[in-house]
């Protein structure tokens, strides 16, 4: 019988009688204490110990892993949630990728961009501003209820260990991947690690020298070698006496970034798509696909507003030119909120601003030489919590200038705005394009999701708008060459809506306490999920959240981590009841 799980029962009735006798009788016969007896305590739930092994592989192109199908990793898929479309940072350097892994925040916030691991001011920022502090997740562990966790980091990059994981209880810098494997196996055989990171960089070295491609023999051989090392780690792990008994292990295998040609660091799919696997003996095999819609709800006003705005205020002014602006919205409306604008303050400054009027939408414009022009005839209802496409066209025709509005691909009004351009007037503003609360602070807050924000440097025709408002592949648009801004706003991670237009880098920067959310209801440009499909967009930046969930560490809001613990969606598979 387990003595640690038994109740000690001492015979309370006999003890009470003895006490009473002492009180009432000056002298009495001494009785021997009744012997204690024990019974099993079935009311106490003994939790297993949660442990984690995180294997990080530099330079692993996701498609190469899929093509090569290394044997150890392939066998692990049988008990894993995995993806070949995970995401790392668009600045896919070693430094940026590892800082995101270590801190749980995206590169747009921590601003680490290279292997110096030193903050560099973002474009448009002040280099003299004090950088925000985003420490290692191990610092958060030390301030949590699980401060007793033994943390180990094993890597051939000793500088990285010192800079990013100074709190690690066991920092182990080694010479190469083989030494990483040997050290990790030794820790699993002879030690008691709770959270261990094993970092391999041999694949990255091979990619830089020979090319990041599955067809390159040296690169393929490097992948198979690391896969064999992972096999030795798994053998040592499963040989632990309490493996899958008192110890519940989550094994995470991820590539930190990919590569293209013989280089990496950019934003191409080959560089930013990563292979990621979450393995546990009780997890059921499932490939996680990039699908559905994962966006940010733009809501609130004033200091609490969640919004997004471009970094460059001078970009995308219509000026005196033709232009088409389009976006999809899903939400509800209050009293005249301005939800999409390029105007500093309505109605006293130049630019344009879209606002809601009940369930319909309207637009206000003002040139550099004119007063406000408000175009507010009724539109079809759009703020009814369903997805709708809104289109604005600044057009030239018959020696006049026009503003046309469309809802769900259908034109419902055309307004002559020629006089707004008198005296050299121009629809120009130094204020950046903004999604969410902004142009007029006197009215109520916004409450909507945005998707497929597009800007063309030409006036699209009625047919071009109607026939392409639900286009699933934007590169097939007949005026794709004129597409100068395209923000799907469905990135699912990070601190920006990325600009996917050809050769464009002006991104929407998210403001406020934003949160990425998956919606079952998707815009018409996205195929809905099948009945048995679950769309999850794993990203390396959210690995910290998964680790904390697994290790039963409550995430504090002031840690401001990016990403959520999506793995709990599947907890019925691995929680032992």
TrEMBL record:
* InterPro entries per the UniProt record, alphabetical: Alkaline_phosphatase_core_sf (IPR017850), ConA-like_dom_sf (IPR013320), DUF4983 (IPR032309), Phosphodiest/P_Trfase (IPR002591)
**Which biological processes are named by the entry's GO terms?**
carbohydrate metabolic process
Domain DUF4983 intervals? 475-567
Task: Write down the superkingdom of origin.
Answer: Bacteria
* Pfam families in UniProt: DUF4983, Laminin_G_3, Phosphodiest
Gene3D superfamilies per the UniProt record, alphabetical = 2.60.120.200, Alkaline Phosphatase, subunit A
Q: Name one GO molecular function term.
A: hydrolase activity, hydrolyzing O-glycosyl compounds
Quote the protein name from its UniProt record. Answer: DUF4983 domain-containing protein
